[in-house]
């Protein structure tokens, strides 16, 4: 149903990527849905070097020196904004943050006007978070520089899905270039409102994982089976055999008694406790995109578990993934050899 | 000043029944004086040669949101029933009287009175006063009336007044803030969505209330198989309900939402392809009585927004006729029925003596080349705005001349 990637090129039998810009033929990163499998793997592999750099005491490369990156966040965010800001700075770019709370957006300026304003300031990349599905794509159509989606409504959050895949690959000690073939992943929580779930379903299915989703019926989107996942309402059943358990944040502000009776009752049915985790694979690992509601969707003993929780690893990989995305998407601007302008409508 | 009599010769007459027949039509004092194969022009008549075009009734567009004369004339529309969703709403006799004059003389507007004050669904508006100020029917507006008690009292009151009630069929409790029909497409795009059954729920309730009160109820748009089944069954039981639809719901499905195209943000939202086919079947079997444009021109300030922030609605007046003609070309209906859907049935609902070519009726006439090809272009519309979901679509069928009350419309 989504437009398929027009690029027929894939990795060769030795696992090498297409040359230069053929490895990633998009100007923007608006969603995982637009990416081919090898493009997802390419971004993961590109991030490996930045994981290494970020562990050095001198965490700086001058790759994006002289470039201006605007983080335009129309929705509140702490960790994603910080992660993008650190990623840009570690690559040597000038990073500017625009918060909706302090912007003219509150004064009634339209999204398009804001986009045109940002464009006129000659940013070299714009990172956008917005509360409406499709808003990032709308802006991408109106500006001249690469646009990165840092979360649009209930649609996609592609860098989160990429950092989750990289975290899984590292936790399972898989080599660079590997996919996640056969990995059993259970995603539990408010699937309906979750862009993290949608992007993860797209990227994990592309990488060959076997996905189950679990939520009460009111928080499960219609026909989600069509995205290639198995649907559960019973958490214990969904956990059976899971090697990765990904918990989603219960957005309490959205619930208002309409979707679930109470946080307490939600925890009773869907809270990840140590006892519940025992129903999964004995070595199952736990992930959460944050911020967590401790004691609701996840208990502290699970979240802080020294060997089973990957939650801080996710945050660490997030910076590396965002560095990789900023690097790859600005290569055409920077005239990196082999990265010529895109031909045709491949954005 | 009374215009001279008009005789249109050399055309194929679209009569209430059967295939178009070669013949002529003669109009005197704004009304049809004679029509048929043997009609001749009299000395002193203005004579127009239709050159083989269809001679059809001017369209009667039931349920438009704006009076947009250039678009209506392009589309062959000579009368439009205006929804009460204006600013301010048509909930006062003075505003109804004013709206009834908007398009004259070459375009007649038939205001639909707001059923409730401010269209808020709580207090009945002054329906008898608005009727006598020129309201041709009563409408609930873009929304349904959620309170069943209010709807019951509205229907019984309108049954007494002899006014048709035009209602929007979506259960607002189920739809909430949805902008799409629940299904794979809405799920992939992360759009707030509601199950298609929201329509059947509303239709079921309102049919029950219509049966109880004997009111004449018209569902402005019925777009799902389940709700159409309910209408079909109600008609079979003899309940006085009718149903309408716009071309969007027999031409398009929710697959069009890909890329978040806000020109496809409609109310009710686009449905599944199975529902689209059910709409065509319902047009063919007579369950659907009216095809309207739902004309609602919206500029960039309403449409160039993220999908769920955009306003619903399409500029439909120009494409109403050619898209309906696709149903004739595909063999679902014949030409006489196409114009019954576009003109005769809505005219009957509104109680106006137009919408049909017969002696004595108002001489509202469209000359139509039914196979003339053209391409819909959002940038070059006659409408006040180009928000058409059919942009770039090649279509066939174009109005070549239009007459309102026997006078040519330029």
From TrEMBL, chain A:
Residues reported to bind L-aspartate: 107, 195, 249
Domain Aspartate/ornithine carbamoyltransferase carbamoyl-P binding: 27-169
SUPFAM superfamilies xref list: Aspartate/ornithine carbamoyltransferase (SSF53671)
Top-level taxon of the source organism: Bacteria
Keyword Transferase: yes
Signal peptide interval: none
Keyword Transferase appears in the UniProt entry: yes
One BP annotation, GO: 'de novo' UMP biosynthetic process
Residue span(s) of domain Aspartate/ornithine carbamoyltransferase Asp/Orn-binding: 181-328
GO cellular component: cytosol
Pathway this chain belongs to: Pyrimidine metabolism; UMP biosynthesis via de novo pathway; (S)-dihydroorotate from bicarbonate: step 2/3
Molecular function in Gene Ontology: amino acid binding; aspartate carbamoyltransferase activity
Region annotation (Disordered) ranges: 1-20
Pfam families referenced in this protein's UniProt entry, alphabetically: OTCace (PF00185), OTCace_N (PF02729)
Reaction(s) the record says it catalyses: carbamoyl phosphate + L-aspartate = N-carbamoyl-L-aspartate + phosphate + H(+)
Primary enzyme class: transferase
Family: Belongs to the aspartate/ornithine carbamoyltransferase superfamily. ATCase family.
Purpose: Catalyzes the condensation of carbamoyl phosphate and aspartate to form carbamoyl aspartate and inorganic phosphate, the committed step in the de novo pyrimidine nucleotide biosynthesis pathway. Reversibly catalyzes the transfer of the carbamoyl group from carbamoyl phosphate (CP) to the N(epsilon) atom of ornithine (ORN) to produce L-citrulline.
Subunit structure, as described in the record: Heterododecamer (2C3:3R2) of six catalytic PyrB chains organized as two trimers (C3), and six regulatory PyrI chains organized as three dimers (R2).
Protein name in UniProt: Aspartate carbamoyltransferase
Designated gene of the protein: pyrB
TrEMBL record, chain B:
One GO CC term on file: cytoplasm
GO annotation terms (biological process): purine nucleobase catabolic process; pyrimidine nucleotide biosynthetic process
InterPro entries assigned: DHOase (IPR004722), DHOase/Allantoinase_Hydrolase (IPR050138), DHOase_cat (IPR024403), Metal-dep_hydrolase_composite (IPR011059), Metal_Hydrolase (IPR032466)
Domain Dihydroorotase catalytic as annotated: residue spans: 76-224
CDD domains per UniProt: DHOase_IIa
UniProt keyword list: Hydrolase, Pyrimidine biosynthesis
SUPFAM superfamilies: Composite domain of metallo-dependent hydrolases (SSF51338), Metallo-dependent hydrolases (SSF51556)
Top-level division of the source organism's lineage: Bacteria
Gene Ontology terms, MF aspect: allantoinase activity; dihydroorotase activity; metal ion binding
PANTHER family (UniProt xref): ALLANTOINASE
Protein name: Amidohydrolase family protein
């Amino acid at each position: 149903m989504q437009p398929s990637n027009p690029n027929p090129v894939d990795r060769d039998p030795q696992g090498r990527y297409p040359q230069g810009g053929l490895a990633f033929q998009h100007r923007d990163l608006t969603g995982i849905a637009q990416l081919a499998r090898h493009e997802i793997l390419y971004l993961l592999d590109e991030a490996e070097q930045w994981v290494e750099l970020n562990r050095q005491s001198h965490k700086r490369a001058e790759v994006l020196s002289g470039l201006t990156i605007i983080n335009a966040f129309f929705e509140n965010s702490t960790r994603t904004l910080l992660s993008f800001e650190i990623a840009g700075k570690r690559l040597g770019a000038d990073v500017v943050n625009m918060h909706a709370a302090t912007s003219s957006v509150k004064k009634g300026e339209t999204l398009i006007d804001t986009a045109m304003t940002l464009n006129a300031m000659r940013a070299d990349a714009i990172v956008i978070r917005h509360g409406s599905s499709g808003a990032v794509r709308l802006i991408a159509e109106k500006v001249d520089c690469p646009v990165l989606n840092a979360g649009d409504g209930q649609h996609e959050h592609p860098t989160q899905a990429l950092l989750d895949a990289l975290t899984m690959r590292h936790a399972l000690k898989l080599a660079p270039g590997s996919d996640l073939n056969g990995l059993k992943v259970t995603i539990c929580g408010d699937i309906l409102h979750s862009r993290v779930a949608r992007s993860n379903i797209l990227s994990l299915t592309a990488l060959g994982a076997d996905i189950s989703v679990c939520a009460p019926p009111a928080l499960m989107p219609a026909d989600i089976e069509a995205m290639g996942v198995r649907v559960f309402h019973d958490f214990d059943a969904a956990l059976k055999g899971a090697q990765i358990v990904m918990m989603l944040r219960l957005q309490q502000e959205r619930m208002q008694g309409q979707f679930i009776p109470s946080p307490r009752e939600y925890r009773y049915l869907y809270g990840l406790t140590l006892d519940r985790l025992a129903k999964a694979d004995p070595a199952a690992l736990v992930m959460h995109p944050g911020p967590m509601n401790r004691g609701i969707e996840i208990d502290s003993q699970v979240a802080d578990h020294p060997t089973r929780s990957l939650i801080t690893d996710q945050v660490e990989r997030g910076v590396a993934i965002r560095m990789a995305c900023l690097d790859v998407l600005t290569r055409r601007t920077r005239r990196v050899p082999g990265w010529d302008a895109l031909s045709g409508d491949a954005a | 000043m009374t215009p001279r009599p008009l005789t249109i010769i050399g055309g194929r007459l679209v009569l209430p029944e059967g295939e178009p027949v070669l013949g002529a039509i003669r109009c005197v004092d704004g009304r049809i004086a004679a029509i048929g194969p043997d009609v001749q022009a009299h000395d002193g008549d203005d004579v127009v040669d239709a050159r083989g075009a269809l001679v059809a009734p001017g369209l009667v567009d039931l349920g438009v949101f704006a009076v947009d004369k250039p678009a209506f004339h392009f589309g062959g529309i000579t009368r439009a029933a205006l929804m009460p969703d204006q600013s301010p709403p048509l909930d006062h006799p003075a505003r109804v009287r004013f709206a009834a004059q908007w398009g004259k003389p070459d375009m007649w507007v038939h205001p639909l009175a707001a059923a409730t004050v401010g269209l808020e669904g709580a207090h009945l508006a002054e329906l008898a006063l608005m009727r006598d100020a020129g309201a041709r029917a009563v409408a609930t507006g873009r929304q349904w009336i959620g309170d069943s008690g209010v709807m019951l009292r509205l229907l019984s009151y309108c049954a007494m007044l002899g006014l048709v009630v035009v209602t929007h069929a979506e259960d607002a409790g189920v739809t909430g803030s949805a902008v799409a029909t629940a299904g794979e497409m809405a799920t992939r795009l992360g759009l707030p969505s509601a199950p298609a059954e929201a329509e059947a729920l509303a239709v079921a309730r309102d049919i029950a209330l219509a049966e109880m009160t004997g009111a004449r109820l018209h569902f402005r748009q019925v777009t799902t198989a389940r709700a159409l089944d309910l209408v079909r069954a109600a008609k079979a039981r003899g309940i006085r309900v009718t149903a309408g639809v716009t071309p969007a719901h027999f031409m398009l499905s929710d697959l069009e939402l890909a890329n978040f195209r806000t020109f496809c943000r409609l109310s009710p939202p686009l449905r599944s392809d199975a529902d689209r086919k059910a709409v065509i079947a319902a047009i063919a079997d007579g369950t659907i009585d009216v095809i309207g444009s739902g004309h609602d021109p919206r500029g960039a300030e309403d449409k160039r927004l993220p999908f769920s922030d955009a306003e619903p609605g399409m500029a439909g007046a120009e494409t109403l006729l050619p898209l309906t003609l696709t149903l004739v070309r595909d063999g679902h209906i014949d030409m006489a029925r196409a114009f019954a859907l576009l003109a005769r049935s809505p005219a009957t609902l509104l109680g106006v003596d137009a919408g049909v070519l017969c002696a004595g009726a108002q001489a509202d006439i469209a000359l139509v080349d039914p196979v003339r090809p053209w391409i819909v272009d959002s940038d070059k519309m006659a409408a006040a705005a180009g928000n058409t979901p059919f942009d770039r679509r090649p279509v066939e069928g174009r109005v070549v001349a239009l007459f309102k009350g026997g006078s040519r419309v330029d």
